[in-house]
Design brief:
Blueprint: E1 5-6, H1 7-10, E2 16-26, E3 32-36, E4 38-39, E5 53-55, E6 58-66, E7 69-74, E8 83-88, H2 90-114, E9 118-123, E10 128-132, H3 138-153, E11 158-161, H4 165-170, E12 185-188, E13 192-195, E14 210-218, E15 221-228, H5 229-250, H6 257-289, E16 297-300, H7 304-313, H8 328-338, E17 346-352, E18 356-362, H9 368-379, E19 381-386, E20 389-394, H10 398-407
Parallel strand pairs: 1-4, 16-17
Antiparallel strand pairs: 2-3, 2-8, 3-7, 5-6, 5-8, 6-7, 9-10, 10-15, 11-12, 12-13, 14-15, 17-18, 18-20, 19-20
The structure holds zinc ion (ZN).
């Protein structure tokens, strides 16, 4: 077994190369594992995912390093000893390098300023998450972000090297490892020196913008979400699009959408208040139209809004309305108003056959607490309360509820 020549260490910007196929084996999952004499495909490591692209026209799906060999996982086989053209998905790789190098800049600044370590790093689809070992406020983070972007502007070279065991022993760097061999150092002079196996940009200017999206407390430290370079541009555009849509919907300037939303919420609260008052009033009007009875009174899906029509016409069937009652203040109020009008039970149900009903039942003649079990059994529900009023929920359908209350006088 021989070590694959790692071209990505000599030149992190090599996107196309030729190589010889040393081995190609079929895997049980339908993929093929290929080993080349040299490769620019970075296998996963240091938080960075494996490069994709093509080798000899075959798709590179994944990569892994094992015993010094770089394994490429391909969609189709290649012939042994063939010399093949290889091409990285460069856009993907350069974006990953922008993000990863940006992470080093920020981690270096956090370490240099506060002494906190990067204790967790994940490169996700949307952004990177970095966990620092100490607490940082949003204001401190914004200051660090500013300095990170000044580092980008200064266009500082990103140097990578493998120090000897003796050099390594006296070298101060982040995430100091127990290893003394093959430790690769990524150094951004004056900003950061850390151990890392992944390919990086050549100068900090290549990173583009370093943008912190969020910063929150996490397990005694801080978790930040960060996005760099072209990914940051995409992120900016998506946000811009979203704010523009909101501003169009609210007919407000882009910079004033939060005030427009505040205004909208205040208006909504006022409408809710007015609606509740109107519902209570209509509930009282409705109750006035109900004739006294010796038996039960049942309302299913009563809604004050629906009853506006009923109350106006007085001739409507007020015992069953199709609108859904959302306000249980009105539901309770209706029960209270109906109780003096019947000698049986005054029941108001809200909901629908598919998702079930919430009910409130009142009575001035029978002890509902002792009746609760009978009601629960008959309507497949649960509930309880006081002798004069019970509430609960049930899964019985409207027809079954009607049947129960017409026969249970
Ligand atoms: Zn790294």
């Amino acid at each position: 077994m021989m070590r694959t020549e790692k071209l990505y260490y000599a030149d992190s910007h090599l996107a196309e190369f030729r190589a010889k196929v040393l081995r190609c084996e079929a895997l049980k999952d339908g993929r093929y594992v290929v080993v080349l004499d040299q490769t620019a495909f970075f296998p996963e490591g240091g938080g960075q995912a494996a490069d994709t692209g093509t080798i000899g026209g075959a798709k590179v799906l994944d990569g892994k390093e094992k015993n010094g060999e770089i394994l490429h996982f391909l969609s189709s086989p290649l012939e042994q000893n063939a010399v093949v053209d290889c091409r990285l998905d460069w856009e993907k790789r350069i974006r990953r390098m922008q993000n990863h190098s940006g992470e080093h800049v920020l981690s270096g600044l956090v370490h240099g300023t506060y002494g906190y370590d990067n204790v967790g790093f994940h490169m996700g689809e949307e952004c990177m998450t970095i966990d620092f070992s100490g607490e940082l406020t949003w204001e401190q983070m914004l200051e660090l972000e500013k300095r990170a972007n000044e580092t980008v502007r200064a266009n500082i070279p990103v140097r990578t090297y493998f120090p000897s065991a003796e050099e390594l022993a006296v070298l101060d760097y982040r995430s100091k490892l127990e290893l003394t061999e093959d430790v690769r150092i990524v150094e951004i002079e004056g900003i950061d020196r850390g151990a890392c196996c992944a390919p990086h940009v050549s100068e900090t200017g290549e990173i583009g913008i370093i943008k912190v999206l969020s910063c929150e407390r996490h397990r005694g430290g801080t978790r930040v979400e960060v996005v760099c370079g072209m990914d940051a541009l995409d992120n900016f555009n998506a946000r811009q699009q979203s704010v523009t849509e909101i501003s169009n919907l609210l007919s407000a300037k882009r910079g004033e959408v939060s005030r427009a939303v505040e205004h909208l919420l205040a208006e909504r609260d006022e409408l809710k208040y007015t609606l509740t008052a109107a519902e209570r009033m209509i509930t009282r009007l409705l109750a006035d139209t109900v004739h006294e009875t010796e038996g039960n009174l049942l309302f299913i899906n009563y809604s004050a809004i629906a009853l506006k029509a009923a109350a106006a016409s007085f001739a409507a069937d007020v015992t069953d309305h199709q609108e859904i009652m959302k306000n249980d203040v009105a539901q309770r109020e209706l029960v209270n108003l109906l109780v003096p009008k019947c000698n049986g039970m005054a029941a108001v149900f809200a909901g629908d056959d598919a998702s079930g009903y919430r009910y409130i039942i009142g009575s001035r003649t029978c002890d509902l607490r002792t009746k609760a079990r009978e009601i629960s059994t008959a309507l497949s529900g649960r509930g309880g309360g006081k002798p004069e009023m019970i509430m609960g929920s049930c899964s019985a359908k409207a027809d079954r509820i009607r049947e129960f209350f017409s026969s249970s006088n």
